[in-house]
Amino acid sequence: MNMKSQNSAFKTYFPKVLGYGTVLATLVLLFFFLIYPVGIIVSKAFLGPNGFTLEYFSLLFQNELQTTAIWNSIQLGIATTILATIVALPLSIMTTKFDFPLKGILSALLLIPMIMPPFVGAIGIQRLFARMGSVNQFLLEHNLIVTPIDWLGHSNQFWAVVILEVMHLYPIMYLNLTAALSNVDPSLEEMAGILGAGRFKQFKDIVWPLARPGFFAGAIITFIWALTDLGTPLLIGFHDTMPVRIFNMVTDINQNPVGFALVFIVILMTISFFLISKSALGGKKYEMMAKGHVTESAKKTGFWGKTVIYTSILVVVILSLIPHLGVIITSLSDDWFMTVLPQKWTTEHYAAVLQNSLSSAGIKNSLLLASASTLFDLGLGILIAYAIQRKLVPLANWLDALVMIPLALPGIVLAFGYVVTYDGTFLDPLNNPVYLLIIAYAIRRLPYMVRSATAGLQQMSISLEEASTTFGASKFYTLRKITIPLVAANLIAGSLLCFSYAMLDVSDSLILAMKDRFYPLTKAIYVLFLEQGNGEFLASALGVIAMGILSACILGASLILGKKMGELFRS
Amino acid sequence: MRLKLGTFLLTTLLSGFAFGPAFAGDKVIIISPHRKSIQEEFVPKFIEYYKAKYKADVEVEWIDQGGTSDDIRFVSSKFATNPRSSGIDIFWGGGASAFGDLAKSTFLSEYKLSAELKKQLPEKIAGVAMYDATQTWYGSAASSFGIFTNKKLLKIQRSEAPKIWADLANPRFEDQISATDPRHSGGAAIMNTIILQGYGWDKGWEILGNMAANVRKFTHSSSDPIKAVVSGDVSLAPTIDFYAAAKIGDLGSENLGFVLPTDFSVLDPDPVAILKGAPNRKVAERFMEFVLSADAQKLLVLPKGQSGGPVKDTLGRMAVNRDTYNQVQLKSISANPLMFKTSFTLDAQKAAKLKNILNDLIGAIHIDIQNELKNAVKNLRKKGAKPADISALLKPPMSEKEALALADKWDDDVIRNKTINSWINDYKSRYIAASK
Amino acid sequence: MKVEFKDVYKRYGKVVAVEKLNLLIESGALHFLLGPSGCGKTTTLRMLAGLEEVSEGHLLFDGKDVTHLPAAERGIGMVFQNYALWPHMTVQKNIEYGLNLRKLSPEIKKKRVTEVLGITQLTPFKDRLPGQLSGGQQQRVALARALAIEPSVLLLDEPLSNLDAKLRHEMRDNITRIHKQTGITTLYVTHDQKEALSMGTSITVMRAGRTIQTGSPRDLYTRPATPFLAGFIGETNLIPGVITSVNRDTAGTSITVDTEIGSIFSTNSQLKEPKSGQKCMISIRPEMLQIRIDPSSPEPSKNKLRLALDRLTYLGESEQIQLKHGSLLVRGSVFRPTSHMPEEGTLLSVGVEPSDVLLLAEETDLSSGT
Q1: Which of A445, B63, B89, C212 satisfies CB 3.0 to 4.6 Å to B278 for a cystine?
Q2: 8 Å CB contact of A1 and C86
Q3: Distance from CA of C75 to the nearest CA of A (A)
Q4: pLDDT digit string, tens, across residues B269-320
Q5: Predicted model pTM
Q6: Do A467 and C84 lie within an 8 Å CB cutoff?
Q7: Is residue A384 within 8 Å of residue A399, measured between CB atoms?
Q8: C256 shares a domain with C147
Q9: d(CA C163, CA C178)
Q10: What's the complex ipTM?
């Protein structure tokens, strides 16, 4: 018997103090770097010429354009989520349930489309799909069409946005579904098979309910992303969406407070959509009984199986990489004026951009900032997900919803909130934006990590933790030795998203990094992009370099962890 | 593993402090929407000039917040927390209207030109004030506005390039124009003002409405229309001169062109000013002196590589210092605004007063419901309606006088939004009725 | 170590999971907690492990109050129903986990691991991951892991429920052997009465959050306190009836009960104060019924009943016989069954010794049974 009564009191309370302390620290952090700065900005929605007012909200709803925009955005979110699921689900089943050569590389390739360097993406699309862009030029030259097709014209805009969103967002869905599916014990399916359930019925009745937390994690991020994405509709020129309306009013030379009212509505919508869909989709908890271990069950594929798998993966990847291709061509073109492909090719832009001090500093800064913020997210995300999932705090659902807010926030609101809040303090970004940049990157990407970690924890049997407790392990020891290794697949998926999107962050980088020695990669791209002359080409070249770095990170991570992820980290 | 992660994090955090050495010498902090190329040419030259003239090193901190409106928002927020100082010395770049707003908010401090500079800097060029009566801001360069064209595309369409602003309203340019939303671009707002003041209120609205019906897309950034023309999406874009000049330089004047409308061409100064409570007032004054000097102004006009000219990139802007043009004469590649002959003078006061209300009005009845407008105008044109009928459809909701009166109340966001909502409702149903 | 629950309650909001639990587990016992699912036995176990807080009452280890002692300091080893083996650790790592937490010297650690691997016959598998083991091996790993820390109390939560019948028998022997070898006070939770009867040194039966009886397996089988218990532990025939006469003499009390199948005489009463006219419940174990298959054999001398043959179930060493009277079914069995069994519907003579007729009080609370 191992009772040591002298330090028993300490041992009893220490984990509790530490536990609640962490939760408290998290809440304080969220208050100072989310609620307060955002509150300061959004409070303008309630401040009329004579003090407090709700007038802007009624003005908002009296304007038919705003209500149309709200409705369009919801439809965009729904259409994107459904299509992204249709694309991602078969792919994730293929990669989890079947074995085929080059699986590691191909499943990593599926993630590449999620990296799209900002600004230059627009060039890619414009170059290819403008009325006199490459695609139409090609079709005209070969007499396939008589008048140019208006790919991005008014009537196609909605679906153009949806398709671009899907091509960009399906990796999020794919990552979450794959992590979830690989955790479903195949013996359960086998059992269902023995009981005579067909493949589809097996999937519907057995696999789906168990993989649902993972689907929920992916779907809610996809939905809210599409609902609140500014970049894509702006790129296509589809202005009747909520985020574009907000952007219009907030960045108007003569700022319009109705924009902040709309921000407030978006936050409310995000929270309620999250809570509703959580209770409908993710609420029920089907944890795996953790009867030991999920055995390797991937089936070998025959010729036709391979054909189907390779074709679908390559088609999805190639289609999704079309905008990227446009950027790559631009970066290599010497002269490109109204022809299918550039008349002359050159690698000069790469030489020029590599000599530019902005790019090397930008790459270094971004790698540093993105890694730091990802570590930050990892720590914070696990703790928050753990506190929510194990109900360590009261009102866990609300904490969960609170963490989702950054997804809903227009980029400018959070970043500018920081500028206003921390003006003149030691965090003033005018002097040194590094800390605020790390925090801003981290807070913005926190939802991905929390969702991924929550999905992992939901699938893990709590008895695995309890077993550790009975051996005398503290909550934190258990978290470190048992819980974290077991949800590692989910955490890696979350980190990959956090890191990639932090590398590609736009609004925080533009607003918080004010002096060129602090410029992250994205701001360097932006500054080059605005340059006259060859700026566009240099920006494209730097964009391609950024894509290269991120692709290498993703390929590397999945090659190193790919096999192990499948074999070891299943709970 | 844990240790490594910890060390990494710590290093990252510490490196936050390590960025950039502390600088003990003279320093000036500049906020500017200007692009990198201007920074790269002017800053080293200023440091050199400072060393030679004042025998001291100077550090220039260049703050980039994006475009003009981003910079104004940033400075305003700084003054909101500390009304006496923003912690920044110089605001450089934008347009006359932006600096009018800054002066109105009392963010600028007075700066008197030296007698020598006063002789070199004309108060007005082509009828446009190059510096303000309040002696807060001074034009450091000048820009003109015109129409950027894709010659190749115009040839394919067998269309002639426009010559005057009113040509943009011609039905032959249906879906062939890319323009910027004036609510996001001071340049676009000035072009609208030129049309409204040049052609007069009523005719002006007819042209703006027809032009909006010809616009394929209103963009947020003033650089997007340039790209639309280059990629062949449209053939025309109203723009500021040097945006166009750079592209023409790249892709050849046989492909692209810039039309300076022969009826109303207007210059806009690109000002520089010292901000209120500048922490480095003295260095800031020296910077003003430098930027306005004939030597520094050569950077704007000379092609790259020429002695006294820019090192990396040709800036292709117009200088405002008389002596600059006297010294460089014809070597310059950009036009000399001092030779501009224009019968038209912009009423800057009226323009400043109407700016916000005009932006909102154009935004409401031309941009936000552009599809309805397009359908209506195209329908009338197809039916062969008389120009007067189209003009009636495009008639603004008020006279210029009424607009001036309403402008006084425009700071009240409730009145402002109520009015905008009613414009949208009225014109939307009006357009829908006309498209049947 | 002696473990004692004193008036322990566990409430979840308004729901009472365990009510006024009093339980004594003697040092070195292999004590079973038996009951239908949802009766509170697992909650009791988890309170003992420190995984659930006690709402009210006290928990004593060797007389010392440990009610609020964290799980970490109770020195408990637990085997979970799903084993809860950590899939990312090898068998050896799983076993070492608890030892690492105790900061033991490497030599002691090595000795203990070798020891428990030996006891559980897992030595050849020590470097495998749990996923590479069979169900029985996984179960042994869970046991080895719990034993390695030399717990003062070992808790087993339905440890055999995931195994097939053959393995289950094997593991019963294993656990009994290991318990004898180590002498660790063990609390074993199960819903399988056969497991409890065959392995336990003592058994507590729980129902609806309460304990109903504690005793040795023999006590519980022969002298169950209630009709529920009689039916729960082993099979029995429960026949309701009314007492017609009570006769007390020096040999004891003999009671006559009137039932649907006739008058039955009993000398084995669990009733407190049996009175004429009182309703009661008769329990007769199937193996105690003497069924006359061979018409040439003598008629039963006592409690002669006549029942119709309803159904026969051949089990090899015995034949199960279901008898019927009206709607009442009575089960019995014959050993060494012959090939000439009577046909269904045949009326048979059945007898039973009065000492094998157990009189129990009528069940008062039927709402909370299974």
Answers
A1: B89
A2: no
A3: 5
A4: 999 999 999 999 999 999 999 999 999 999 998 888 888 888 888 888 889 9
A5: 0.81
A6: yes
A7: yes
A8: no
A9: 18
A10: 0.81
